[in-house]
Design goal:
The structure is a single chain. By secondary structure, this protein is an alpha/beta fold. The protein starts with a strand and ends with a helix. Helix 3 packs across helix 15 and helix 4 packs across helix 5. The protein has 19 helices and 10 strands. The chain is globular, with a radius of gyration of 22 Å. The chain has 2 domains: about 240 residues, Rossmann fold (3-Layer(aba) Sandwich); about 180 residues, no CATH class.
Length: about 425
């Protein structure tokens, strides 16, 4: 137990398919975090929905207690950190476990039960078991915010209040729409990065040229193609991402007896940044988390990228002065060829891209009549969630108060100390 806090493990049996409550059950894990004194037992619950999809809930360390959002939240709440189904200590969904579900079509049907609507179903069962039926508060970060909006659509009676950070989704947009707005944002982030570090244009090009001329396999078996290298741009959506990418590029090469090669330090850092080994569901369900029109996503990121030729590496390399453009959080079919953790899931990924039975996640009519207080933070320069669409969604949800800030990137809640959670709680409970 960390100083000043109490942590309690909870496991819950929930239906795989909430439309079949007496069918197959899976297990969902959650960690309760509360202040270490008797009065905390009387505090209301705050359910935290992690970003993703496919990430486990945060694991509290001393730094979280000293200065993170959790340390602030437990002054008012008992915080429940949910390992969303398939992640962390919940029943896992990985390359090792998914083959037990049958063929790829059966595996795809299984994973169709791992989207936001099912996470809301889990939360409702857990709420009844922990609160005796009383509504609770929810904090959703990024994809967790998408889940919170689904919660408002599917079970608003379970909610006392909702906080959302960087996670107001498009209510009717599909994966194509999401990526069509994402590539221009990514281009802006590239421009800012190269403006800050103009000397990185040449190292980035040199790495890309090296990868074209030399098949490069990283120590963990990752095939480092130019496209995989470009996907390091996912770093640019965080507060320190530009610096992390810059320092990665500056140590890329070393001179050896066999000529100039990519250094071991560079290779190990790249494989850590790119590997999906700890988050396979992110790769598998990234496009599915936007699907709600009974139509396949059909590798939307691949198709939309063709309309943005400046991101094509061969186009940039054919022009001496053109910088290599990094890409963001898009997941492509080639990920399941280059990443050794994803290769066994390649056929399943294609089956999910062809899956047609994803239903709606949001109820616009119900949201327009919403009575649950909602307090949202939108990041002006968010790489991962479109600001304009977030503000359109904010306007479409009754009883929602939105604050737009340019002081943080997408990770403002987790990287900004207590600033974001303080601001949210102040708006929810203004001083008299």
């Amino acid at each position: 137990m960390l100083s000043g806090i109490r942590m309690t493990d909870h496991w819950f049996a929930v239906p795989l398919d909430h439309d079949r409550p007496h069918g197959e059950q899976i297990e969902v894990y959650a960690r309760e975090v509360s202040a270490d004194h008797a009065a905390s037992e009387q505090r209301p619950w705050l359910l935290y929905l992690q970003g993703g999809p496919g990430y486990r809930s945060p694991r509290p360390f001393q730094a979280d207690v000293a200065c993170g959002w959790i340390s602030r939240a437990i002054k008012d709440y008992r915080v429940l950190l949910l390992d969303q189904r398939g992640t962390g200590r919940s029943t896992p969904a990985t390359r090792q476990t998914l083959p037990t579900r049958g063929d790829v079509r059966q595996q795809a049907e299984y994973l169709a039960c791992f989207r936001a609507d099912s996470i809301v179903g889990d939360a409702e069962l857990i709420r009844h078991r922990l609160t005796g039926g009383a509504p609770w508060s929810v904090l959703g970060q990024s994809f967790g915010g998408f889940c919170a909006v689904s919660y408002l659509s599917l079970a608003p009676e379970g909610l006392a209040e909702v906080f959302i950070t960087g996670g107001l989704p498009s209510l009717d947009g599909d994966a194509d729409h999401v990526y069509r707005t994402a590539y221009p944002r990514m281009e802006d982030k590239n421009a800012l990065f190269y403006h800050r570090y103009p000397g990185d244009v040449e190292p980035a090009r040199a790495i890309a040229v090296h990868l074209v001329d030399n098949e490069t396999v990283l120590p963990d078996g990752t095939l480092l193609t130019v496209e995989a290298f470009q996907s390091l741009g996912i770093l640019l959506g965080t507060g320190d991402g530009a610096e992390r990418l810059h320092y990665l590029l500056e140590d890329a090469f070393c001179d050896t007896a066999y000529g100039r090669e990519l250094s071991d330090g560079f290779q190990y850092q790249v494989q850590a940044a790119l590997s999906f080994a700890q988050r396979p569901l992110y790769a598998l369900l990234q496009e599915a988390c936007y699907a709600q029109h009974l139509a396949p996503t059909a590798w939307a990121a691949d198709r939309v990228r063709r309309d943005f030729p400046r991101f094509h590496a061969d186009s940039a390399l054919s022009r001496t002065a053109a910088p290599i453009l990094f890409t963001g959080e898009t997941v492509h079919a080639w990920h399941f060829r280059t990443d050794p953790a994803l290769r066994p899931l390649r056929d399943l990924a294609h089956a999910l891209a062809d899956y047609e039975n994803f239903g709606p996640l949001y109820d616009s009519a119900l949201l327009a009549k919403n009575d649950v207080p909602v307090f949202a933070v939108v990041y002006q320069d968010d790489l991962y969630v479109d600001t304009r669409q977030s503000l359109a969604t904010a306007a479409a949800i009754r009883s929602l108060s939105v604050h737009v800030t340019d002081e943080h990137e997408h990770d403002g809640l987790t990287a900004g100390g207590t600033a974001i959670i303080d601001q949210l709680l102040h708006r929810a409970r203004p001083a008299p």
